[in-house]
Write a structure and sequence with these properties.
Largest sheet: 8 strands, parallel
Helix content: 25-40%
Distance between the termini: 50 Å
Structural class: alpha/beta
Strand content: 15-25%
Shape: elongated
Radius of gyration: 23 Å
Number of strands: 21
Length: 461
């Protein structure tokens, strides 16, 4: 949700205040228990519904995923920003439009914690998402929410008490640490008593609702090590297992050890949309993190803008089917899977066409994302990138030729790098069995501009 005009270098100052009762050594080196054994897969409301998805719209996405995508591993259903605001929208024609994003009205309970807007989520008229979470769980899926770092203005201006303490909102709010692009909260100063207790109370509430996934915004750029640690502690204290996702990117490489110890996934890019320049940029961002991989903790290239997007997202593109060509969509899905990024769909899944359905349910691609290891960039130049990965269970190798140039390109790679035995090769994206190749030969392909050729390579039995 960061405006694209904001330059990354403007947002790199990190808040590194030490959380109350902790030392920097402790917050950097105490690993979080693994929650996401494989990269999380699911759906998020932001790319299409923006700030004002309704309960009926959300349920329609849940129903579709449960019937058509759950069997492929898609499971987390996430409501993005604004669920606590009765009159907030990104578009002027929407019934929820308020007209400003400064200290907008939000619903909070008696302890200053956001609660759902019942005019958009009727089942939450009791101030709880429990019924909606139960609906998601009844479909065999998991329920997630977007949360803004800090404490809401609605709580600060009323100076509401912090549950279980003698402290109040103004005692912990940090006016020197507001978000630069979204005026919903002030940061929490984790050095102050009452700060950890506030986050504890929030995640106690979310746990009581049945939340399985939290996407916390305005926390990884600038990198707020203190509040990240505080939220991680609060999740663990809640007693409920939740995926902890940091947003937005690019998360600084310098924070890699802390991110890996405290979060399950973290954004490594700006908000990602359906333009080729942005997709091309993802190769650079993914490449930075390849050598800093840790099983169970996932660098996140952001949501997949596949299908109908932009209906109410306010990204200035308007309602549309993704502008990516078929070649670019193959590249998108292949890159995410080769580097094992989380796969979070962003479009209206009820409007997917057959090509899009086949792309996001390609079993070999999904297997690569879930089970491959040791992805490395083995070649790159101005117009091409070659990635290699492996499957330890079967001894298969994966080889991806990406043509990031604007003209068709012949690409090749020596099969001898995979051993001396003859190699059986299958083209993953079209399913064609290419037969056996002499190990001394090169594997070659003519790749369309902005396209990819992906092969699975195995040894003759």
């Amino acid at each position: 949700m960061v405006p694209l005009h904001l330059r990354s270098q403007d947002l790199q100052t990190a808040n590194t205040n030490v959380p109350f009762g902790h030392t920097s050594q402790l917050i950097n080196n105490t690993p979080r228990n693994v929650v996401a054994i494989t990269p999380p897969m699911g759906w998020n409301s932001w790319d299409n519904f923006g700030l004002d998805i309704t309960e009926a719209e959300f349920k329609s996405q849940v129903d579709y995923v449960a019937s058509n995508l759950k069997q492929y591993g898609y499971e987390y259903m996430v409501i993005d920003a604004g669920w606590y605001a009765p009159r907030l929208s990104a578009k002027t024609e929407d019934s929820f439009f308020e007209g400003k994003l400064t200290k907008f009205e939000t619903n909070v309970d008696e302890y200053g914690r956001w609660i759902p807007a019942a005019n958009r989520f009727p089942s939450a008229s009791d101030g709880s998402f429990r019924k909606l979470a139960d609906y998601v769980h009844s479909k065999g899926l998991k329920f997630g929410l977007h949360i803004q770092r800090g404490i809401p203005w609605s709580a600060i201006e009323k100076n509401l008490p912090i549950k279980g303490t003698s402290y109040h909102a103004k005692d912990i709010a940090n006016p020197a640490d507001a978000c630069s692009w979204w005026d919903a909260t002030l940061g929490v100063d984790m050095r102050l008593p009452g700060s950890q207790e506030y986050y504890n109370s929030c995640y106690e509430l979310y746990a009581s609702w049945g939340v399985d996934f939290v996407k916390v915004d305005d926390i990884s750029r600038p990198y707020h090590a203190d509040e990240i640690t505080g939220i991680r502690n609060a999740i663990e204290k809640s007693g409920r297992q939740m995926v902890f996702s940091l947003s937005p990117g690019s998360t600084p490489i310098t924070a890699r050890y802390h991110a890996q110890s405290n979060a399950d996934m973290w954004r490594i890019s700006d908000d990602f949309w359906d333009t080729w320049p942005q997709l091309k940029k993802q190769f650079e961002l993914a490449g930075r993190w390849l050598r800093f991989k840790k099983e169970g903790h996932w660098p996140d290239l952001d949501m997949l803008p596949v299908g109908i997007i932009g209906t109410r997202s306010g990204d200035a593109g308007g309602r549309r089917r993704s502008r990516f060509t078929k070649d670019e969509l193959f590249t998108l899905m292949t890159l995410w899977c080769m580097v094992r990024s989380p796969l979070i769909l962003g479009g209206d899944v009820t409007q997917l066409n057959e090509f899009e359905k086949q792309l996001i349910t390609n079993k070999e691609l999904l297997y690569i994302d879930n089970s491959s290891r040791n992805c490395t960039q083995v070649y790159s130049d101005a117009n091409s990138v070659i990635y290699q990965a492996e499957d330890r269970a079967t001894n298969k190798k994966y080889l991806a030729f990406f043509n990031i140039g604007d003209a068709k390109k012949d690409m090749s790679y020596p099969l001898k790098s995979f051993g001396v035995a003859d190699k059986h090769v299958i083209n993953v994206l079209d399913g064609k069995d290419l037969g056996f190749f002499n190990a001394g030969k090169n594997l070659s392909a003519s790749v369309n501009p902005h396209g990819v050729a992906l092969f699975v390579i195995s040894t003759r039995d």
